[in-house]
Write a structure and sequence with these properties.
Length: 67
Amino acid sequence: MTLIINVKEDESIDRAIKRYRRKYRDTKVREEIMKRKYYTKPSIKRRKEILKAEYKLKKELEANSNH
């Protein structure tokens, strides 16, 4: 994958680098690389998704009960 950042004439290089980093982060390249580093069994993926959903629901219920 190639990320192209066009640097404008009146733009500083620091600003262009910041835009590049933001674009890189938004494409989630690093997450994909880490995910493919090791094989994860489908049952483990499902278990993680279920635990994450339970955690989110618990946090949401706690936030609603505090109000």
